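User: I'm putting together notes for a lab meeting next week and I want to include a structural view of one of the chains we've been expressing. I don't have a solved structure, so I'd like a prediction I can at least talk through. The sequence is below, exactly as it appears in our construct file.
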Amino acid sequence: MKHTTTTLFQLFESFGVFTSAEIKQILKYFEYKSYTNGTIIVDIGQVNDKMYFVENGVLREFSYQEQEQNLDENEDQTITHWLMSENNFEYLVDSFLGQKPSDIALEVIEDDKLWYITKTDIDKLYVEFPQINLIGRILLEENLKKYERYNAMIRQNPESRWKWFNDNYVGFANRVSVRHIATFLQMHRVTLSKVRSKLSKR
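Assistant: Thanks for the context. Below is the predicted structure for the 202-residue chain, given as structure tokens.
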């Protein structure tokens, strides 16, 4: 039996520009796939030719630390650039839009249930359903707002960064490793552990 999604249907319905019949037609372009924790679905040097919708789980954008930094074994060997969970679209912007090799990777960090659509099929939808252009603009604007808030956050002190993370990524502290969170917040793992311990005692 073909896997179906109510969540993705409801998301398109929430934009208020499609009929139910149109949404069903759009969803025919999407494919479903489950992934196990640790799967890299786009590696560095590969072209990201799919846009993913997270039905369940967490995705992580990352790159590798420079070897000459001589990181100890307790430190993350990667740098987490972004985290995305349920009910969100995820793709590596430069690689996907330009269809060129990516300089960052995309990894599954939970057992994930994802829907995906290829860049080729998205281009077909732009022609078949011009309203998709509006959706694309809305999603892009939302992502730009998130990046702006992130860039403002990393200029704050470690305690404020941790508070921001908990406010904007509710429940992620129990779903994402401390190592990944630390590099995402651009602080040392030990610093993050001290901040968490300090705030938990208040």
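A couple of points you could mention at the meeting. The chain has a mean pLDDT of 91. The CA atoms of residues 1 and 73 lie 45 Å apart.

User: Perfect, that's what I needed.
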